[in-house]
Structures are given as structure tokens and as C-alpha cells.
């Protein structure tokens, strides 16, 4: 029977250290070889993804080891033992600083037309969409569903005031810009979350205009929360959203 990494870690006591679910800390106690380069890399990955001194073993497996190409316990043992063939192209670097997926050829649109289409769909004039970029690009329908899972902000925890909603938006835009997608019509939407028609709290998420001239909203703190403007938001603390300002 092939053992998964979870089986291997369970056998090694990783889930039951000190009588509780094992959190990432003294990895050496489970993996051994405390001075191995590979072990140090795993430690760096975990600490970068989870700023706390620990990460739940399920997250260690799904967010770090599996994307590195390590699926079974034997593969993990071989890699930790020095078999670099298990170290896939890009390796852990793509987990910490992943590239934006290739979005293919995109339609170009003038800054003035981009403002027009956003206003036509939402009723909000995006005053901050200006001619710093005379030409913007429109992402194809569905491609936002490729961008969201790759967004490195997925691995950043919420920290009040220091990394809250607007910082998640800025981080996403910085990542897009770094990889040459800075002039997508992909910006900040300032909204009021509403419950039964009453505003509950202000929030900042992403607004995206696609090549069909449809407007989408994307919550960068939750990579699966993407919905078309006007649809019921998938957020648990509201049943509707009022758009108050758009900045591209």
C-alpha cells in the first residue's frame, strides 16, 4: 500500500506531538537530518507562507509539499535524502513568488472607453481611471479564475491595519504589475457590505472588466470568491453589496 505524506507524518508522530495536533515547529523531530539543505528549504517555505511560528500539517502538505511535486511518503523521504529529481521546475520559489498565469492575447481598449463601460455597468464613474496608461487590456472571460488561485496574497494572513482589505488589493495589483499585467482593467472597488438592505461595514475588493464588457468582483482574501456584478455575493456577512468608488 502506497503511503501518502499524511500517512508518513502520522506514523512519525507529527500529528500527535505533545498530545495535540502537531503544528510546524521542530520539523527535525519528524524528518531527521537537521542540517539537510532540503529540510531548511521546507522550513523557509512554511515560515514564508505562515508568518506565525507554526503551520497546520494539512496546510504544510497541501500548500507546500504537494505543489513541490511531493505526494507520497516515499517521495518525501527520497527528496529529503538528497534526490533532487523530485525538485520540480521552479520548485518552492513559485509557491512564495508565483508568476501570473499566461493570460494569452488580450483586447486593448482606450482609457476613456474603459471608464465608459464601467460606468455603464455599475453607474459609478471611475474617476481614478486616468490616462497614465492610455491603453488598457481586457482579460478574457474566465481567466480571472486562473489569476485568483495563483495570487500570492492567498498565503498572507489578515492583520488589522497592517494587512487588511485594501492591502490585499494593493498586493494583488503589485503582483500583476510585476509580471507585466499592470494595465489590465483590474482595480479596487470600494463597497459597502449590506445585510437586509442596511449597510454593515465598508470593504475593498477587486473590480474587473472583461473582454465581453462584463464586470466581475473578486475578494482577494478568499481566492474562490469571484462573482459577476449584480449577483448575490458569496460573502457570509452580507446579502448584497453597494459599490461606492472604483479605482483602476
Brief description of this entry?
31% of the residues lie in helices and 18% in strands. It has 248 residues and is α+β, with helices and mostly antiparallel strands.
Explain this structure.
By secondary structure, the protein is an alpha+beta fold. The protein folds into two domains: 5-95, no CATH class; 107-247, Beta Polymerase, domain 2 (2-Layer Sandwich), CATH 3.30.460. It contains nine helices and seven strands, in the order H-H-H-H-H-H-E-H-E-H-H-E-E-E-E-E.
Task: Please describe the structure with a list of short key phrases separated by commas or semicolons.
single chain; Beta Polymerase, domain 2; globular; alpha+beta; 5-stranded antiparallel sheet; 248 residues; 2 domains
Task: List the SSEs and their pairings.
Blueprint: H1 5-11, H2 28-31, H3 37-49, H4 57-65, H5 73-80, H6 93-96, E1 107-110, H7 111-122, E2 135-138, H8 144-150, H9 165-178, E3 186-195, E4 198-209, E5 215-218, E6 226-228, E7 240-247
Antiparallel strand pairs: 1-2, 3-4, 3-7, 4-5, 5-6
Helix pairs in contact: 1-5
Which structural class matches the secondary elements? Answer: alpha+beta
Largest sheet: 5 strands, antiparallel
Give the ordered list of helices and strands.
HHHHHHEHEHHEEEEE
**CATH architectural category of the largest domain:** 2-Layer Sandwich
Specify Rg, calculated over alpha carbons: 21 Å
Distance between the termini: 53 Å
Give the proportion of residues in helices. Answer: 25-40%
Strand order of the largest sheet: 6-5-4-3-7
Low-confidence stretches: 17-35, 83-95
Percentage beta strand: 15-25%
The total count of helices amounts to 9
The total tally of domains equals 2
